[in-house]
Amino acid sequence: MGITGLKHSLNTVFTLWLREMLRYRRSRSRIIGSLATPLFFLIIMGSALSTTMTMRSGNYIDYMAPGIIGMSVLFASLMGGVSIIWDREFGFLKEILVAPVSRFYTAFGKAAGGVTAAMVQGTLLMVISGMFVVEYVSVTGQLLSILIMFITGMGFIGLGITLASRIESHEGFQMMMTFITFPTLMASTAFYPMANLPPWLGIPVQLNPLTYGVEALRWALLGASEVPIMRSMTIIIVFSFTMILIGSWSFDKAGDH
User: Fold this and answer.
1) Mean pLDDT per 10-residue run, the chain (257 residues)?
2) Which phi and psi (to 5°) does residue 190 adopt?
3) Are 144 and 228 in contact (CB under 8 A)?
4) What is this structure's pTM?
5) Using CA of residue 215, residue 175, residue 121, residue 148, what is the dihedral sign?
6) Who contacts 187 (Cβ-Cβ below 8 Å, separation ≥6)?
7) Contact 75, 33 (CB under 8 A)
8) What is the pLDDT at residue 175?
9) What region, left, alpha or beta, does residue 193 occupy, with left being phi > 0 and alpha being psi -120 to 50 degrees?
10) CA separation for the pair 187, 210 (Å, rounded)
11) Long-range contacts of 31-37, Cβ-Cβ distance < 8 Å, separation of 24 or more
12) What is the 3-class SS of the chain, one letter each residue?
């Protein structure tokens, strides 16, 4: 690819990213809902469970905060695939697929927009939680957590793009998201320590990429986690890279039909 071709490809990525950002900014109900629901979980559910959960160090609400941030990133990233279905229904997807640009950059532009929205939600949730209910170890850790949100979000939005490329209807995509999000969330360490799990549940938790995203956030924000940080980072980076490749391939194949 020459310099001119690369410039056109990057312009495509930026244009699609900007389009997703404008769509996100105009959806105030989405922004409010993306913050209100996780905060409700953190304050109400965290306060209720803190009376029954025994932590080795710290309190349960502090432990739960990185899990709630990971939940927000998971939901927002997977739902980023909805834009593909909307664009397909309104004909916009057909217009961008005929452009003389590799479909990888088209998929990457949409993924970048979706994961940026997820990072904004996760970062706002982190800041609000830190102001009122959670004590983080350092500002450096909070900055590192933004990078962790990005890596984790790219993996799950790659999954969202893969599914959206295969599913024709908005309703079908919503049902599939419900089927995926809650088992993924509950079979992770978002709400309970890995050491407290029965052996049969420990296996899916350890195979779940969200577990390692949450544990990396926990290490960055609280200074401790059940999984070594290098293992968590390696797994979420490999997961992110793999899912973006699969998502781009699925998006490319979907455009051939």
Assistant:
1) 64 79 76 79 77 70 90 86 72 64 75 87 90 87 94 91 80 81 90 83 91 96 92 95 88 64
2) -65, -35
3) no
4) 0.87
5) positive
6) 201, 204, 205, 208
7) no
8) 83
9) beta
10) 9
11) 31/121, 34/72, 34/75, 34/76, 34/121, 35/121, 35/124, 35/125, 35/128
12) CCHHHHHHHHHHHHHHHHHHHHHHHHCHHHHHHHHHHHHHHHHHHHHHHHCCCCCCCCCHHHHHHHHHHHHHHHHHHHHCCHHHHHHHHCCHHHHHHCCCCCHHHHHHHHHHHHHHHHHHHHHHHHHHHHHHCCCCCCHHHHHHHHHHHHHHHHHHHHHHHHHHHHCCCHHHHHHHHHHHHHHHHHCCCCCCCHHHCCHHHHHHHHHCHHHHHHHHHHHHHHCCCCCCHHHHHHHHHHHHHHHHHHHHHHHHHHCCC
* Cα–Cα distance measured from residue 255 to residue 98, given in angstroms and rounded to the nearest whole number: 9
Non-local (6+) Cβ contacts of 244 within 8 A are: 108, 111, 154, 155, 158
pLDDT at 150: 94
What pLDDT is stored for residue 177 in this prediction? Answer: 83
The pLDDT of residue 73 is 92
**Sequence-separated (6 or more) residues with CB below 8 Å from residue 192:** 53
CB 189 within 8 A of CB 215: yes
